[in-house]
Amino acid sequence: MKVLKAKETVVVVVGVAAAAANRKTQQQQQQQQQQISETAIAEAEAEANDIINLSLSFFF
Q: How far apart are CA 21 and CA 3, in angstroms?
């Protein structure tokens, strides 16, 4: 009975560790995606500003 309990405990501990690792991986992926999105937004804003400045240079 003790051997069975030990095996069950190991299975639970490994399962919990795997779930924690999976959660951490998902969090890291979300952070990376957010950084990519923020970079894309910043690049788009910079490009828009360049276009606006270029357009204004024709008028002034």
A: 27
Per DSSP, 11 falls in state H
Cα(57)–Cα(60) distance, rounded to whole angstroms?
A: 5
What is the value of pTM for the model shown? 0.61
Name residue 12's amino acid: V
pLDDT tens for each residue of the chain, 60 residues long: 566 677 888 888 999 999 999 999 999 999 999 999 999 999 999 999 999 999 988 876
